[in-house]
Known about the structure:
Elements: H1 9-28, H2 31-36, H3 51-55, E1 125-134, E2 138-139, E3 143-144, E4 147-159, E5 164-170, E6 173-178, H4 180-185, E7 189-190, E8 193-204, E9 209-219, E10 233-244, E11 249-260, E12 268-279, E13 284-297, E14 324-337, E15 340-349, E16 359-368
Antiparallel strand pairs: 1-4, 1-16, 2-3, 4-5, 4-6, 5-8, 6-7, 8-9, 9-10, 10-11, 11-12, 12-13, 13-14, 14-15, 15-16
Amino acid sequence: xxRLIPSSPQSIRPRIAAFLIGLTVxxxxxxxxxxxGGLGLFNRxxxxxxxxxxxxxxxxxDSDCGSPLCCDATDCGSVGCDGCISGCDxxxxxxxxxxxxxxxxxxxxxMINFVHFxxxxxxxxxxxxFVNHWVPERIGNNIPAGGTIQVLAMQFRIALTERLSLIGTxxxxxxxxxxxxxxxxxxxxxxxxxxxxxYNLLRDTQSGTIASIGGTYDLPGSRDSLQDVADGxxxxxxxxxxxLMGGNAHxxxxxxxxxxxxxxxxxxxxxxxxxxxxxxxxxxxxVTEVAWWHWIDSAEGGAALGVAGQDLFNLSxxxxxxxxxxxxNVGLKFKPNGKTEWGIAYEFPLTEFKDVIEGxxxxxxxxxx
Length: 369
């Protein structure tokens, strides 16, 4: 297959670095310039005229407020913002860390493909995640495997401005309880650290539409847990969400591109992840999600394993070009308030090709500021 991009570090790194620098520069640009141009993409007023009438909030919205920090979600009901209040929260550490955008509190965060499926909202949160991952009895080119892998991770997101977030999507510890030949390759160890930036492009509180772009870099972790295969990888993504049924249902979708810094040792892939939730009660949501992975380039210097590692790994594999993996999960989210969210979901493959997943049980807690 013809390469879509050159895989050498010299050709990849300048492009990715320029993209990440561009995010930072965009965050410092004036929002007035964009609005003056008629784009309206960067209007971050949380108290848009008419939102009280549309969403039935307790207080009328003040179009002169002009700051999402004045969006008080305490009594806002199921969706929307609660107008402007005095004494707005300016953030932590002298305003260095901003509070979460509260005008999309009716949304819940996605769970599938948790390393790469990014919530489009600008939030400040801690998110401990525990995963019990079942491995097929045979993987790839008939390699004996089976058993389980456990992962305990702590994601974080920090709102630096009204539009820019610092995100950490992968870290923690991996426990190996696999069998067969896989057990000889994998052992307990620290996961790699994935961190980067997310930038909010589009935010409409009345229609419930939000979209962001971003990029992360994967810093190699422990060699024992196969998190130190090469020099890491870049991940570029676009993600968006839409409110449905007056806040009783929501859609999210994200597309991402995983680019290894050394294409000789790691594979290159894209993914498309989709989320749907339906509100069952005031605090409980039914969630189902589907994720698709497609490998567009193998690691030329890798072994003929036939698997790449789904979202937790990027193995040095020479024969995964063209492989497709589709998985689905079904779960529940419990959200007692806008600052706390708990979820549980079970994930399973839909395609004949399973890569390294037979099943996955994931549970998580989100504590948001």
